[in-house]
């Protein structure tokens, strides 16, 4: 079977790269950094955290840019929290917010409540006028629990959207054949996903990307402008976000990606391909 690149009308040896800014809408500083990364840096795509306080601002700022929905079931910062759109009890912790970690979601969240909440987040983005290009998952919550993964696929089919998927190596470690399930449902998704939270992104890109083969690879970044806002809510990992912004804006990184022969795209061509096949 032809690969995604060939199905997009490109040669069999073409390497396509999606650079996705996660956490759009999580803060004003994240919005500004992701916007800059997409407009003048190496980023090609972003994903919106619909329940977050700065999501509505992002809709206006990112008008005309490619945004997906970053399905959000967690609120990880100790002093900066948000709630679900639907208010379901199983989705909230004792303080009334989305839980701080994936394990708490898996332990307590009802799949029916997860389905309703994720659908509400997609519907809200559409109602705001976002031309949603794809779905992915904040902190991977929808991707690593087979119950929630089934909902992830179900919603992608319902809205005819491509998905972020873990790469083939990690897929084999999850305990269920997620990539096979998504493909059987007729969904389009990248061939590879390069991500390693906490590892310097510049070094990760330079070591991992030369080794990826033809087809579509997604990498994700979490750019945020440095300053009191970021340092006030992210007390432990703010520098990762600052450094990600720097990487996306570094001309040397743009040159590196060009020298590697990557053609940078967003998820939109994958969405168009999926919908044309349907």
UniProtKB/TrEMBL annotation:
Q: Which UniProt keyword terms apply here?
A: Carbohydrate metabolism, Hydrolase, Magnesium, Metal-binding
CDD domains tied to this protein: YdjC_TTHB029_like
Q: Give any single GO term for biological process.
A: carbohydrate metabolic process
Q: Which InterPro entries match?
A: Glyco_hydro/deAcase_b/a-brl (IPR011330), YdjC-like (IPR006879)
Superkingdom field: Bacteria
A GO term for molecular function = hydrolase activity
Give a yes or no for keyword Metal-binding in this entry.
yes
List cofactor names only. Mg(2+)
Pfam family membership, one = YdjC
Q: What is this protein called?
A: ChbG/HpnK family deacetylase
